[in-house]
Amino acid sequence: FGSTTTVVHSVVYVGINGLFSFGNFKATEDFPEMFPGSVTYVVAPFWSHIDTQSQSRGEVYYEVYNRGVSIESDAVMNKVSTFISSSQMLPDNFTAEWMLVATWDNVHLFP
To answer: pLDDT tens-digit profile of 60-70?
Structure first.
């Protein structure tokens, strides 16, 4: 997370507005705003002001993949490991052990 020290978190929150947050900050606000506190760890793959309350609301889903749980999970983890290794952003011997996949399905902007 951009620091010189390794920070390990055991909890991740999937927010309705496209944030994954870690640590004590729960990305559960119904609108994007300034992050509280001086240290907030987030990943924002789909940060937007989403309406999940109206009749046409979409859904937010997530799935966790862990290596060694099933043949299907291992296949996904191998594919991800190969993709990340080929990006040259990490060492060639990178092996993913777990992965969080979130989907914001048919969501609409807040009016």
So the answer is: 888 889 999 99
Distance (Å, whole) CA 45 – CA 62: 13
Which two tokens mark 96? 């993913």
Q: How do residues 48-105 score in pLDDT, each as one tens digit?
A: 877 777 666 788 888 889 999 999 999 999 998 888 888 877 677 788 888 888 888 8
State the number of CA atoms in the 13 A half-sphere of 75 facing the CB: 3
Distance, in Å, from the CA atom of 68 to the CA atom of 9, rounded to the nearest integer, reads 21
Nearest of 95, 29, 39 to residue 68 by alpha carbon: 95
Question: d(Cα 96, Cα 3) in Å, to the nearest integer?
Answer: 21
Distances (CA, A) of 83 to 14, 71, 75: 24, 18, 12
